[in-house]
Amino acid sequence: MEEEEQPRRGPHFVGKKEELIEAKRTLITVGGRDILVLHHQGVFYALDCYCYHSGGNLQNGDIEELGSRLCITCPKHKYKISLAEGEGMFKGTDPTVKPPVAKWYTKGVKQRVHAVTETNGDVYITLSDDRCYIESDYYQGEVGKERRAKAAAQEKAS
Ligand code: FES
Predict the structure, then answer these.
(1) Could you tell me if residue 137 is inside a domain?
(2) So what's the pLDDT on residue 4?
(3) Does residue 3 lie within any of the structural domains?
(4) Is it the case that residue 3 has pLDDT exceeding 70?
(5) What range does the domain containing 22 cover?
(6) The whole model's pTM is what?
(7) Which of 77, 107, 135, 140 to mutate to test the pocket of ligand 1 (most atoms within 8 A of CB)?
(8) Are the C-beta atoms of 96 and 118 separated by less than 8 Å?
(9) With bands split at pLDDT 50, 70 and 90, how would you rate the model's confidence at 18?
(10) Which residues form the Rieske domain (predicted)?
């Protein structure tokens, strides 16, 4: 089905489950939005492809468990983002706890995540309908795309 024929939110066909598992990470564009669909430890996740911090591409980010949440690390400046919720994570200490023990805390939802479903071996995503602005939205818009392109050109030139 052509992208234009599909409803805005979806579900939008991503691919065959087995192929996506083999690929592990797949970048798709739905309604002008670039989304990373990844398969990790038996679960599919979908999130905006560009990091909320400064537009880094998350496609090759490492995945690890931090504070009982699976997180992807942005390759650009190493920010951590939980895969299931899109929360920005940081390590800190609670000064009221003695002795202080560093642990992972959330900054709240920073990266837009999308629902993934499977039907008869086909995988679909349904775009998030959260109408609140989420920081990763910036890098999906025209201004954000220009900024990403400018940063990529500067990196290439240096
Ligand atoms: S762009 Fe992702 S951590 Fe800065």
Answers:
(1) yes
(2) 46
(3) no
(4) no
(5) 11-149
(6) 0.90
(7) 77
(8) no
(9) very high
(10) 11-110
